[in-house]
Amino acid sequence: MTATERARELAVVAARAASDRKAQEIIALDVSDQLVLTDIFLIASGTNERQVSAIVDAVEEAMYKAGSKAIRREGVSEARWVLLDFGDVVVHVQHAEDRVYYALERLWKDCPEVELPRDARGGGDTSEFGGTDKDSAIHLDPGLRQ
């Protein structure tokens, strides 16, 4: 089973909102074959707690406008790793250091990546984790995906 079309649409909405707040290394993973509770994990990074909070606020607002309200929110007060559960889509916004440490991409490496439009990928070419802006992009180790 693959992610529903609605889940894919919502993932793009959330990714664009995150990208508008300068989130980096945005990726979407189709976890529908592994989990029954959700279809897509969207993962994005911020460089500090203030940016993580801004990304979270933007995602929640955009998703609300798209007709989806968070069922659960965790980690908002610390703003290091915020989880927003929208049912079909779970959004993880992580501080860059925490993202590298917890390496969700490695944990879910067997799940296919959902293609995001270029304007929804954040600060760098996330399909290769290489980034195009060498000065400001977070560069995750490509080995995390293998």
UniProtKB/TrEMBL annotation:
Predominant localisation class: cytoplasm
Region feature Disordered, mapped onto this chain: 115-146
Basic and acidic residues bias: start-end ranges: 131-146
Domain of life of the organism encoding this protein: Bacteria
Keyword Repressor: yes
Alphabetically ordered keywords of this record: Cytoplasm, Repressor, Translation regulation
Protein name, per record: Ribosomal silencing factor RsfS
Cited Pfam families: RsfS
PANTHER family: IOJAP SUPERFAMILY ORTHOLOG, MITOCHONDRIAL ASSEMBLY OF RIBOSOMAL LARGE SUBUNIT PROTEIN 1
Entry's localization field: Cytoplasm
Similarity comment: Belongs to the Iojap/RsfS family.
Subunit structure and binding partners: Interacts with ribosomal protein uL14 (rplN).
InterPro entries according to UniProt: Iojap/RsfS/C7orf30, NT_sf
Primary role: Functions as a ribosomal silencing factor. Interacts with ribosomal protein uL14 (rplN), blocking formation of intersubunit bridge B8. Prevents association of the 30S and 50S ribosomal subunits and the formation of functional ribosomes, thus repressing translation.
